[in-house]
Specification:
247 residues; alpha+beta; six-stranded mixed sheet; 5 helices; disordered C terminus
Length: 247
């Protein structure tokens, strides 16, 4: 299981944070009763007295539960679905390698959309999610290119897509998936994946997110966005205090 460390802001409640991070608001106890929050609970006493500036740890257990990749004559189409509730702080990020057929005005490596359709590092725009909130749980893409020439050789298109938690301008990613396709000069395309991304591929994905461009002049990293792997909860028993003495 992963978790997101959240510094409580004025007006935020445990039930509201539960809903923001993919729970039902009524499931707030799954956060409040988590062992990592023992200190916050002891200081606050009751959720209604949650202190501004306190760090609350939110367990993130949502995972990809369905995925399909279908070859098309000129590329491939993917659909990925996660579990959990919508959660206004949950979304998707994707980076791509366009090989020998980058879209006009873009580089071979880019943060999708390529070209950028807003100045945020996420796959779906705010307008798209406002029109269809279920996109927070559902990712889909149809990537395609014209048939390459003999001089170009086979086009090899690749992508890494991740579930993402957004807290302020910090993006935590997990459950990263590689998918793509190869389009030869002659013959049908072949699909690649979907499969779990390797550690090396995830690091490249994070690096590209930092260096990626939206519609503004600055990279996402220089615009104040940070990207990391979602911290992992190891086991169900709270880790011992570093300052405690044990016989």
């Amino acid at each position: 299981m992963f978790f997101e460390d959240v510094k409580v802001r004025r007006g935020e409640t445990v039930s509201g944070l539960a809903a923001a991070y993919g729970y039902k608001a009524s499931e707030w106890r799954k956060i409040w009763d988590h062992p990592r929050n023992l200190d916050v609970v002891a200081r606050s006493g009751v959720p209604e007295r949650l202190q501004i500036g306190a760090t609350l740890y939110v367990p993130i257990s949502w995972m990809v539960v369905k995925k399909s990749l279908t070859a098309r004559p000129d590329g491939a189409a993917i659909v990925v679905q996660r579990d959990g509730e919508l959660g206004k702080r949950l979304t998707w990020v994707q980076t791509v390698y366009q090989h020998n057929q980058p879209v006009a005005g873009t580089q071979p490596f880019c943060v999708d959309g390529c070209p950028a359709d807003d100045n945020l590092p996420f796959y779906w725009t705010d307008a798209e999610i406002a029109a269809n909130p279920n996109l927070r749980k559902r990712f889909r893409d149809y990537s395609h290119r014209p048939r390459p020439t003999f001089a170009m050789g086979t086009t090899q298109w690749r992508a890494v897509v991740s579930l993402a938690v957004v807290t302020g301008q910090r993006v935590s990613i997990w459950n990263s998936i590689v998918w793509g396709w190869n389009l030869p000069v002659i013959g049908p395309p072949s699909v690649v994946g979907p499969r779990p991304a390797s550690g090396h591929e995830v690091q490249g994905h994070l690096n590209l997110l930092r260096k990626g461009l939206g519609t503004g002049p600055l990279t996402f990293g220089k615009s104040g966005w940070t990207f990391r792997l979602a911290p992992m909860e190891i086991g169900d028993f709270p880790m011992p205090s570093a300052t405690a003495s044990y016989a």
